[in-house]
Design a protein that fits this description.
Blueprint lengths: L2 E2 L4 E6 L5 E7 L9 H11 L16 E5 L1 E2 L2 E2 L4 E6 L21 H8 L15 H17 L3 E9 L2 E2 L5 H6 L7 H16 L6 E8 L13 H10 L4 E6 L2 H4 L4 H4 L3 E2 L2 E2 L7 E2 L2 E2 L4 E7 L9 E4 L5 E4 L9 H24 L4 H8 L1
Antiparallel strand pairs: 1-2, 2-3, 3-7, 4-7, 5-6, 8-9, 8-10, 10-16, 11-16, 12-13, 14-15, 17-18
Bound molecules: flavin mononucleotide.
Flavin mononucleotide binds next to helix 9.
Amino acid sequence: MNSFGYRFKFTSFGESHGKAIGCVLDGVPAGIKIDENFIQEQMNKRKPGKNKYATSRKEDDNIEILSGTFEGFSTGTPISIIIYNTNQKSRDYTNVKDLFRPGHADFTYFHKYGIRDYKGGGRSSARETATRVAAGAIAQLMLKEIGISIQSGIYEINGIKAKELDFDYSLNSEIFALDKNIEEEQKQAILGAKVKHNSVGGVALINVKNCPVGLGEPIYFKLDAQIANAMMSINAVKAIEIGDGIKSSSLNAYENNDQINSKGFKSNSSGGILGGISNADDINIKVYFKATPSIFIKQDTVDIYNNEVNCELKGRHDPCVAIRGSVVAHAMMALVLADMILLNMSSKIENIKKIYK
Ligand SMILES: Cc1cc2nc3c(=O)[nH]c(=O)nc-3n(C[C@H](O)[C@H](O)[C@H](O)COP(=O)(O)O)c2cc1C
């Protein structure tokens, strides 16, 4: 199952150490200006090797659009994008060829398929998430045309939480920190773990502005359900919170309900979604990433013959995947919203009449 979405549908392909990764987007409306610089900017935000807070694996992550555009605009036909892998170091992985790295998908892929691409995790590697960022950038180009904008940043690292949120500041922060006063503490937590050959987890915050009322398809394609599905499909994501999420289960209704006046909702505990449908308020979600599983500390594991062995990893890894992961979460949010916009167009006869009558 390598496709995501219903109308704005995205299929990815490729492995960490294969020749290339890529995606095909089907259902993209014709006439969208495909700004390749914007797509590349998004790719550059996720790409590895930029600073000491990310893996030193260097990938250019240059995108090449193979189809679906003409003179800079989408044509309504499948848009395919390829990204060549330029820095595969297979030798880094020969020591783990027969063993299951703790926290990775090695164990489950091997037992499910009976064969495993051990080079960098193969298909289970987060290398695949680069394709989502490319697809998500195209979704963002569509959303921009109708005034919907998405912002994201790092809320929490290793339990150290932002107190103030500044999405503009996060754009220029090496760790996409939302709070400049907490950023240094968060950076030190990452570097502290890195020196000890360990890693830390973190939380990304995604905010959507100008989302119209009506996105989301109850009962089984609710907006919050699809957002959760999208976010949980990202490597290392272990939880997702919509609006006040966890807190709302300990509040009473009077505290939790968003009261309404003639201008709209007076608060936003719901995170902009009621009954699985957007209510035109900001959509706010938190995405929880676990600590990067590859660490350079000796760990217990078994090999493919079930012998108990030590796992001693070498190579390169991200000391905190939440940082680059936040860019992927941003892209997935765009893909969900683009899909929901197209689905919602047929929700009322009025909409259909506007086109056909
Ligand atoms: C952008 C991104 C980069 C990642 N890079 C690494 C990495 O360098 N090393 C690593 O061990 N895990 C990395 N991961 C996480 C693993 O891919 C993931 O934890 C693993 O495949 C197991 O899947 P699960 O944690 O979703 O169960 C990364 C995740 C993301 C989102």
